[in-house]
TrEMBL record, chains A, B:
<dbReference type="InterPro" id="IPR011032">
    <property type="entry name" value="GroES-like_sf"/>
</dbReference>
<dbReference type="GO" id="GO:0004022">
    <property type="term" value="F:alcohol dehydrogenase (NAD+) activity"/>
</dbReference>
<dbReference type="GO" id="GO:0005737">
    <property type="term" value="C:cytoplasm"/>
</dbReference>
<keyword id="KW-0963">Cytoplasm</keyword>
<keyword id="KW-0862">Zinc</keyword>
<protein>
    <recommendedName>
        <fullName>Alcohol dehydrogenase 1</fullName>
        <ecNumber>1.1.1.1</ecNumber>
    </recommendedName>
</protein>
<comment type="similarity">
    <text>Belongs to the zinc-containing alcohol dehydrogenase family.</text>
</comment>
<keyword id="KW-0560">Oxidoreductase</keyword>
<comment type="subunit">
    <text>Homodimer.</text>
</comment>
<dbReference type="InterPro" id="IPR036291">
    <property type="entry name" value="NAD(P)-bd_dom_sf"/>
</dbReference>
<keyword id="KW-0479">Metal-binding</keyword>
<dbReference type="GO" id="GO:0046872">
    <property type="term" value="F:metal ion binding"/>
</dbReference>
<dbReference type="Pfam" id="PF00107">
    <property type="entry name" value="ADH_zinc_N"/>
</dbReference>
<feature type="domain" description="Alcohol dehydrogenase-like C-terminal">
    <location>
        <begin position="94"/>
        <end position="226"/>
    </location>
</feature>
<dbReference type="InterPro" id="IPR013149">
    <property type="entry name" value="ADH-like_C"/>
</dbReference>
<keyword id="KW-0520">NAD</keyword>
Amino acid sequence: MCDLLRINTDRGVMIADGKSRFSINGKPIYHFVGTSTFSEYTVMHVGCVAKINPQAPLDKVCVLSCGISTGLGASINVAKPPKGSTVAVFGLGAVGLAAAEGARIAGASRIIGVDLNPSRFEEARKFGCTEFVNPKDHNKPVQEVLAEMTNGGVDRSVECTGNINAMIQAFECVHDGWGVAVLVGVPHKDAEFKTHPMNFLNERTLKGTFFGNYKPRTDLPNVVELYMKKELEVEKFITHSVPFAEINKAFDLMAKGEGIRCIIRMEN
Amino acid sequence: MCDLLRINTDRGVMIADGKSRFSINGKPIYHFVGTSTFSEYTVMHVGCVAKINPQAPLDKVCVLSCGISTGLGASINVAKPPKGSTVAVFGLGAVGLAAAEGARIAGASRIIGVDLNPSRFEEARKFGCTEFVNPKDHNKPVQEVLAEMTNGGVDRSVECTGNINAMIQAFECVHDGWGVAVLVGVPHKDAEFKTHPMNFLNERTLKGTFFGNYKPRTDLPNVVELYMKKELEVEKFITHSVPFAEINKAFDLMAKGEGIRCIIRMEN
């Protein structure tokens, strides 16, 4: 975690002189989370730039820049499911699908997708999910449903919703003795994680991760190489491709929350 | 974690036939947590017996049977402080002193003892503590005090009080990015662990441990060997030695809570 450059949505300016590099008709336009990429040209701190394979198609690998790498890394780098293990993924949006894909790459044999929206289930099979739980289908807590499906608890869980209840469920559904839960979702600022501490004493581990524990400058080029070597298919993460002029249409599609994931195309 | 034999204070009987093996004047005496060791002879499940070096003095190595191994293992097996790292130990009773000793054995260079009772500090130096914090001496949360002492947070923390607030402090005092907090203390049954989930997203880890992750039958003989090889001094963990007839005096001494740790001597 870089103290200097860590994500600061309020900064809006360059660190060196506290000023913006963008303007329109003399009015300053502020920077956004260090990269300001919804523009044809941008200015950013050298620490925010990673050099990737120049052969890589930018209209594809751009999806690796945030949520997808976060989900992949949450499984591959943090949860580290042993071969043949069982993983529960909470939330089957883009990050959760990437977490499932990461669990598959790591060698998990059962990947249980948990989501309140069953329309996401079928497509999630492409990302390695083998089973599904819709908490609405059960009269008991999803922790208990998962414990019954797995003889006491899953080996790993990855939480990709940001919902505080899902975070608690993701922790409480792992098996005593070796279970590891990984929190990926960004919680509401007033959210409080609550659990009985005996759940820890039973030798469980709870970890959080930021960007899947990838160090962007060092590690992102290697994630791009996974795509170039065809070990990682990024195309399946894209459902729509929208020109920049229709950027608000892309946000509307995503807001529908039915598993729609968009690429914004820059066009001259 | 052994499903069959895991600690069950309510069981009180042998598993095979659900009966007690002890009686006095025909009245049954119940078993206690699987070992019933406050007696000259005992009967226990084979899974509760570990064979140790027959040369080991039982009146010394008996202290390794519960809290001391738990504290040692919490540091050595679970927190695993890197060489030269900083460790905070919450609670300087027997378990906390053992956690400090374990951190020292593992190679930590700063070991910060946190306790509300400053009379425990001087002796804790024998167990590797290099600095102390009494939360009562400060107007701000102990997490902040520790962050100031350590440029942002300790590398590892081990919680040995069972107090829920100390558990939360122990988690919140570790450094973003790599900090690991280990919960050892047994919490009150109604206690609730509460923290802002952003504390996890900043790449911290929270683990609990039971018996320091030692597997008793396999690992306890090796802990005894540490003593036999003089790598671990168990004598310093003993402040009083009390004959069995005065067992209640031993409990009274411990209840004073000033760092008194007793051995109960069996005498024929």
